């Protein structure tokens, strides 16, 4: 029984997994590192967008499809069947195989000679990454109690800003020295090594007789869909996730292009000053990748931790915190982004960017913990996969593409710099929809939590 300030809820808890505290920490760190490389390989194309555009002669809509649609098509559609497999099979092996696959295709991006080849290589990255998140979140939920679940999943989700940091910094620095092709090739190798390490060292709780029995009794897809379909909170959290993903991936895909087109002189001046102070030699791309990586990594990680920590504390008295905390952050996001994109000063724009990077990361821990708690343990991977199917197919698949299309339409009259500016500003309004969906989910979340 779990006490709430206004109601008492009876929940079904799975049998605790017997793991030492040190082994549990190791497992969480390993999954964090895998997820971090997931986002290194997924997001590195963002800092490389401009040199790729110049060499291959691409339009902005093609850049948008490389960062979003190519990845999302198979990532979204394969996540569900892989999640169904994860309900019954060894999740560690699925995660390891996924890491090796997406890392191989990331390296393959470096040899692409045209848009079609690069598009297909990015599809391969999406195929590999489809198996990571549902299996990992299901595994983490078996490692931890519900009272610690938001914090554990927030720690796992810190792989998003950490991966973006590494991808931006490493991608930009390598591109400055060796070109964008070398960036893809070199970041692909660590994932293969980490995948093998995860395969041989991560624990799978289903090796116990209890967990094995649970896996054998996993519901059919029809049963799982029925369970999810009647859950009102799950529906509205999915809407919120789609809207958040649309806004986040739209902005991440074109942030480097925005700064390189609108603040090229300011970036060059800042890079020269840094070079004079330190003796290192950075071009505009390397400098921007380093700065954006640090902003996304530091403030994204801070927001992710803050969201998980504050939610776990608030849950002691009110289960509504799963939705209330991310709703407040989402409502503030458009104003923070407007200020960033409308200022003409390069230093001010980079400094202002830190606030939306923090705000857009707050929801990770609460929303993923809520989804894991809204379903029975044996439906968790499927719930996550369906959740991410819509988030990635619509948010990741169409978000960057929308910015690219708006930019291409406005470019003849406004120029490429202002066109990308207003493409980013217009898509940022979607965060208002996310805030509304979170607040609707808030009304039913107490009744719908089951595990």
From TrEMBL:
List the GO terms this entry assigns under cellular component, sorted alphabetically.
membrane
A molecular-function term among this protein's GO annotations: transmembrane transporter activity
Q: Does the keyword Transmembrane apply?
A: yes
Query: Where does the sequence pass through the membrane?
Result: 23-40, 61-82, 153-174, 180-202, 234-260, 280-307, 319-341, 347-371, 383-407, 419-441
Q: Look up the domain of life of the source.
A: Bacteria
Give residue ranges for domain Major facilitator superfamily (MFS) profile. 27-446
Q: Does the keyword Endoplasmic reticulum apply?
A: no
Q: Which residues form the signal peptide?
A: none
Keywords of the record:
Membrane, Plasmid, Transmembrane, Transmembrane helix, Transport
Principal location: membrane
Q: Which PROSITE patterns match?
A: MFS
Cell compartment(s), UniProt: Membrane
Topology class, membrane: Multi-pass membrane protein
- In Swiss-Prot or TrEMBL terms, this protein is called MFS transporter
Q: Which organism is it from?
A: Azospirillum oryzae
Upper lineage is: Bacteria, Pseudomonadati, Pseudomonadota, Alphaproteobacteria, Rhodospirillales
């Amino acid at each position: 029984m779990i006490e709430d300030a206004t109601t008492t809820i009876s929940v079904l808890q799975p049998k605790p997994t017997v793991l030492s505290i040190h082994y549990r920490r190791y497992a969480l760190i390993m999954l964090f590192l895998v997820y971090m490389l997931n986002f290194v390989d997924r997001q590195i194309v963002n800092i490389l967008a401009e040199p790729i555009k110049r060499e291959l002669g691409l339009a902005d809509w093609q850049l948008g499809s490389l960062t979003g649609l190519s990845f999302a098509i198979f990532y979204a559609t394969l996540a569900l069947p892989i999640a169904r497999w994860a309900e019954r099979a060894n999740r560690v092996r699925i995660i390891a195989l996924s890491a090796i696959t997406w890392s191989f295709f990331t390296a393959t991006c470096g040899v692409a000679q045209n848009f079609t080849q690069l598009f297909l290589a990015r599809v391969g990255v999406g195929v590999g990454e489809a198996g990571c998140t549902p299996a990992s979140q299901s595994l983490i939920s078996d490692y931890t109690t519900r009272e610690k679940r938001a914090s554990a999943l927030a720690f796992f989700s810190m792989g998003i800003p950490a991966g973006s940091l590494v991808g931006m910094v490493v991608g930009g620095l390598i591109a400055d020295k060796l070109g964008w092709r070398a960036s893809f090739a070199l970041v692909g190798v660590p994932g293969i090594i980490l995948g093998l390490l995860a395969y041989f060292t991560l624990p799978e709780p289903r090796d116990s007789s209890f967990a094995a029995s649970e896996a054998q009794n996993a519901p059919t897809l029809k049963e799982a869909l029925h369970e999810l379909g009647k859950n009102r909170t799950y529906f509205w959290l999915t809407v919120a996730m789609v809207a958040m993903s649309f806004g986040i991936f739209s902005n991440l895909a074109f942030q480097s292009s925005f700064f390189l087109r609108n603040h090229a002189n300011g970036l060059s001046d800042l890079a020269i000053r840094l070079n004079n102070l330190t003796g290192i030699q950075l071009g505009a791309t390397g400098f921007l990748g380093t700065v954006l990586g640090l902003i996304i990594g530091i403030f994204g990680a801070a927001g992710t931790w803050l969201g998980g920590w504050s939610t776990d504390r608030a849950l002691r008295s009110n289960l509504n915190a799963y939705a209330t905390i991310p709703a407040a952050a989402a409502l503030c996001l458009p104003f923070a982004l407007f200020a960033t994109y409308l200022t003409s000063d390069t230093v001010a724009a980079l400094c202002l960017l830190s606030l939306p990077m923090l705000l857009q990361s707050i929801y990770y821990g609460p929303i993923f913990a809520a989804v894991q708690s809204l379903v029975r343990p044996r439906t968790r991977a499927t719930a996550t996969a369906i959740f991410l199917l819509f988030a990635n197919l619509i948010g990741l698949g169409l978000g960057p593409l929308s910015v690219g299309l708006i930019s291409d339409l406005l470019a003849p009259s406004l120029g490429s710099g202002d066109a990308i500016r207003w493409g980013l500003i217009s898509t940022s309004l979607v965060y208002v929809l996310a805030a509304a969906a979170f607040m609707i989910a808030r009304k039913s979340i107490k009744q719908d939590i089951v595990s």
